[in-house]
Task: structure prediction
Amino acid sequence: MEELNPAQLEAVTTIEGAVLVLAGAGSGKTKTITSRLAYLIYCGIDPSTTLTLTFTNKAAKEMRERALQLVGKVVESPPFLATFHKFGLAFLKNYIHLLGRKNDFIIIDTEDQRRILKKLGEQIEIHPATLQKEISRFKNSLMSPNEVIKIPEFKEKGEVYQNYQLYLQEHNLVDFDDLLLLTYQILATNPQLAEQLSRQYQYIMVDEYQDTNNLQLHILKQLCLTHNNICVVGDDDQAIYGWRGANHRNILNFEREFNAKVVKLELNYRSTPQILERANRLISYNKNRYSKTLRPTCPKGIPVQVEEFPNEQAEARGIASKIANLLTNGVDPSQIAVLYRINALSRGLEEGLRSYKIPYKLVGGTNFYEREEIKDLIAYLRVIANPEDDYSFLRIVNKPKRGIGRATLEKLDRERLGQPYFKFIEKSSLQFLPPKPRNSLKEVVGLIRELQKYKLDELPDKIEELIRLGNFYQLEEKRLNLEEFYGVMREAGELEISLFLNELSLESDQDYITDGQINVMTIHASKGLEFDYLFVIGWEEPFFPLENSDLEEERRLAYVAMTRAKRQLTLTCVRQRFVHGRRREVEKSRFLVEAGLIKGRVKGNKKEEQGSLKVGRLVKHPIFGKGRIVGINRLGKKMRLKIDFGGGIREILSDFVEPI
Result:
């Protein structure tokens, strides 16, 4: 407690009632949360009555370890720290039966979703990736398939959404959004259970509250039915996930909605005064924010550098040269990072790094668990855990090759009459098939039944003995990846296979940050990280801010990028870059002007009026897209807006739209 500054101490010791902790970048957010949890336990509060929700497994693990270390004694009933989705997973394991479903469900990932949607959406000309994003938005906006179908412009998508949900139920699958949606549905329709859970978790803390969406807010309200002891920690200036459904207004409205006390953490322990001066100046142009200014505690450093290059090749070489010098001078590679606004900018950068033989880690690239060979092995485990998982069965039925082709599977599909493939093959004589594929299918079923006899840590040896999966892949790298994953299985011991698989589904990109390489990633992927030496490329219009995007969110994204830097920050721009496939002259980003880094005319007034909701204002809705306000009715402190969405006028509460 002696190490806390006055604002942190106030946040830690205010344990009754709702508290909003506005934690600026580098202000000791994690230290404050862990100290608050330790203080609750120190005050005699049963740790099992606390619930701390985070956005990454890494953050949850770090907070748990640090809090228990601060307590300094063995805790019999440890506190529950988890991501929102892990909390949902644990909840569904206990209560999904209330929806008439079994608790041995399997979580599917984005690739699985898109494969299913590709099949279900064959009749409409919408890419599976687009369908997947739309359905995710529907779920996070609490819209059922029937509600979506009733909207004329979304009727086709709504029908696919409905069929998709039926498919998941029939095969006992859940997607990532279902972990929250089904949790909320159970709580909302079982008030006694919701009250029971609220009494169980008397003290709730939420990390990165600015990144929560409407669905997460509704779950939190269910958890607070019997009390108001909720402390949320976040920074409205770092709300950068609106594009994936996060609602920036959740943190702005929390003080009013929960009658909360507000504590501001404005002392920055990360960056030099020069970096903070530019970041503070930039973010001051946003109107929809709490007034606050980061104050430095670190000694003075060097000014923020802005470097201009002729084109992206020169930019990449220039950055690579500087990084090579840093490495030569003994700088730890893990303390160097290069960030960019969009993935397309990474191509030239990677070429430059390779030309200088600089080892780098592309964070957010192909995740280990997304690689083909690992997905195949996971599919085997899924079928072992749940033989009725048709999607996984079809993935592995001909891996390694067994002479089971498309024609065989089409015949099988016609004959099974909707039964799960595995069950049908096991029970049927398959006389409608030629001997070779018939015997191969029976062999697959026999192999799975044999593998079901073994524990998770025994399966690696048995899979190689019976299936020889490693021999199927020609590339040595793929075989080594399998060996790596076998090691993970062995370390998991006797953990139930379905639990092991669901744990894997909750991994995040930041869990794969490694030493010995510099880090290359999007600005979004860098959230929560910090580096001594930071390079941010692509400070030009129309890349940063990205054209047709929410300008205030783009500015928050620039602020997040700048405040990742501890000692040295370099921002780069070019005179020419490919725009829409053609090389063009580009203009320096307005954000460089607003931050006072280059001279120029600031576009618009310093305090832009884009935040006000008035007739004529353009707004964005997570489902209906962009529209223009044509009428306003006030409902107490809220507003009901009449919005023209391209010819269709709808009435929407103001909380569900963002100004553009």
Observations:
- The mean pLDDT is 88.
- The longest strand covers residues 625-635.
